[in-house]
Amino acid sequence: MSMSGAVEIRGLRYSYPDGREALRGVDLAIAKGEKVALVGPNGAGKSTLLLHLNGILVGQGVVRVAGLDVADGSLGRVRALVGLVFQDPDDQLFSTTVFEDVAFGPIHMGLSPAEVRERVKQALEQVGMAGFEKRMPHHLSIGEKKRIALATVLSMSPAVLVLDEPSAGLDPRARRGLISLLKTLPQTIIAASHDMHLVRELFSRMVVMDEGRVVADGPTCQILGDTALLDRHGLEPP
């Protein structure tokens, strides 16, 4: 893979402890700065694939981020490069205040208190949540929580953002705000989504998964125009 590569996956297979085969030989290469949507029906393997990008799950095959193998010896460095935002922000927000949640990563990176404060300030400004430092996360709206969850990973300056169903549960205004925000971010972005409107607006490349395999990979406009392909894999055009 070239130096411009952000993610490389070759022959990735993964089975859950109950024996269900979730990934069946996935190959995928994503260049630095690309914005790529993973789409497909429930159970296609999208979320399972995302969890391999920072070693939460480990299957058989090759997974590399910025040239680093996602393996025991390099997990610390990989997790500093990959910012994973879960579908449910309550899985990510566990502190008493917004500041503590956003500061958690930088503190564990060993940064000084002044650097931590600056990282928190910048991350909250990026997501349009400046001034929320003292707020209690569990009192926020779902849209606000999603922005704070994104700030918790942006504060670590990741090279790759991995988003699982980023627009799930958002009302139209919050969803529009999220799309506008994600358009401004310079990172490589990989997102699993059922939201075809978001996919069309935000992602230039689309990867269709079904039954643990990549079944199509190409320009979003081209794949969205292939109604027969979408229909075969339980997808609807926006």
Please bin the fraction of helical residues: 25-40%
H and E string: EEEHEEHEHHHEHEHEEHH
How many whole angstroms does the radius of gyration measure? 18 Å
Measure the end-to-end span: 34 Å
Shape, please? globular
Calculate the mean pLDDT score and round it: 93
- Biggest sheet statistics: 6 strands, mixed
Question: Number of helical segments?
Answer: 9
Ranges where pLDDT stays below 50 over 5 or more residues in a row are: none
- Beta-strand content bin: 25-35%
Number of beta-strand segments: 10
Class by helix and strand content? alpha/beta
Strand order of the largest sheet: 6-7-8-3-9-10
Task: Explain what the structure shows.
- This protein is α/β, with parallel strands linked by helices.
- It is built from nine helices and ten strands.
- The strands form two sheets. A six-stranded mixed beta sheet has the order 6-7-8-3-9-10. Strands 2-1-4-5 form a four-stranded antiparallel beta sheet, covered by helices on one side.
- The longest helix has 14 residues, at 113-126.
